[in-house]
Automatic annotation (TrEMBL):
This is Septin ring protein. GO terms for molecular function: GTP binding. Belongs to the TRAFAC class TrmE-Era-EngA-EngB-Septin-like GTPase superfamily. Septin GTPase family. GO terms for cellular component: cleavage apparatus septin structure. It comes from Pseudozyma antarctica. The lineage of its organism: Eukaryota, Fungi, Dikarya, Basidiomycota, Ustilaginomycotina.
């Protein structure tokens, strides 16, 4: 006989106890504390990273000035730049950290151009670990770990450049990478579909691990949703900081000589799919995967290294005594 009874067996209750309210109790606690979501954008220079962030979170979060006319000075991002914002929707508070990074790829030598970005991500893990390990640790540790890294691909129609493959590989070891095709208004629909397929094949060929990951715990529905996302990735997006008028309505879009690209129109680009993915369907999964996979890998590596170095130190201290 086993001491632990089968999980399906349960003791019937004579009367209502009330512990089913635990879900409500957890909810109210979580609502009070709010949620934290940290996103980073990475990619070659000039692909519209800062613009897309401003498009995603409607208000001008990165640079309130933006660049509306062609004769304005180009606003190039020159340093890793985190911006914090608290947004509230139906009583749910989301603390949003957006980390803009300078575009790479315009140096003569682009070797190791990913180093500062990977270092930034690891620094956040290390800061979290340090806070976790202090004797008087805070009850609630402020989380600056990057939950999602939007990786911008140049809309060449050809494929990934070797440097993109190298950067994506480095990043996917430490963070959830979500690739997007930048400025997809420059591709025709056929080109776009072909390009997307080609990139998916290249990512697979190069063993680049892209979010969402497989997990035995997922229900059938979640698995189906993830398969759909895998077939959509990389999201072909268009960003814009200005609004244009379409059918009498103000929309976020880009107006050119031939017409208007409406950023929010699903037949124009996949911006809405990306936004839904980030906020409606995979927000929690991105946060959880960061903690359970990326941070966990970092943490166990650090703790093992710490253990090894302290046992070496002990050995070194004991050795002179033996002689
Ligand atoms: N056609 C087109 N142009 C875009 C799009 N998104 C941004 N742009 C334009 O591209 C230029 C560069 O945009 P930024 O957002 O500054 O690019 P970035 O990737 O942040 O550049 P760095 O900071 O230098 O890395 C601006 O003139 C934008 O208006 C887009 O989806 N389509
Ligand atoms: Mg920028």
């Amino acid at each position: 006989m086993t001491a632990v009874s089968n999980a399906q067996d349960h003791t019937p209750l004579q009367s209502y106890v009330g512990f089913d309210s635990i879900t409500k109790q957890i909810e109210s606690k979580l609502l009070k504390r709010g949620f934290q979501f940290n996103v980073m954008v990475v990619g070659q220079t000039g692909l519209g990273k800062s613009t897309l962030i401003n498009t995603l979170f409607a208000a001008h979060l990165i640079d309130t000035k933006g660049r509306f006319a062609a004769d304005e000075v180009v606003r190039q991002t020159t340093e890793i730049h985190p911006v914090s914002h608290v947004i509230v929707e139906n009583g749910v508070k989301l603390r949003l950290n957006i980390v803009d990074t300078p575009g790479y790829g315009d140096q003569v030598n682009n070797e190791n151009c990913w180093d500062p970005i990977v270092k930034y991500i690891k620094d956040q893990h290390s800061a979290y670990l340090r806070k976790e390990l202090t004797a008087m640790r805070d009850r609630y540790i402020v989380d600056t770990r990057i939950h999602c890294c939007l990786f911008f691909i140049n809309p060449t129609g050809h494929g990934l450049r070797p440097i993109d493959v190298a950067v994506m590989k480095k990043l996917s070891d430490v963070v959830n990478v979500v690739p997007v095709i930048a400025k997809s208004d420059s591709l025709t629909m056929d080109e776009r579909d072909l390009f997307k397929e080609r990139i998916r094949a290249e990512m697979q060929y190069n063993n680049i691990r892209i979010f969402p990951f497989d997990n035995d715990e997922y229900e059938v529905e979640e698995q189906e949703l993830n398969d759909r996302i895998r077939n959509l990735i990389p999201f072909a997006v268009v960003g814009s900081e200005s609004t244009v008028v379409v059918d009498g309505k103000q929309v976020r879009g880009r107006k050119n000589r031939y017409g208007v690209v409406n950023v929010e129109n699903e037949s124009h680009c996949e911006f809405v799919h990306l936004r839904n993915f980030l906020t409606r369907t995979h927000l929690q999964d991105l946060i959880e995967t960061t903690a359970q996979i990326h941070y966990e890998a970092f943490r166990s590596k650090q703790l093992l290294a710490l253990k090894e170095s302290s046992s070496k130190q002990q050995q070194a201290q004991q050795q002179p005594a033996q002689h």
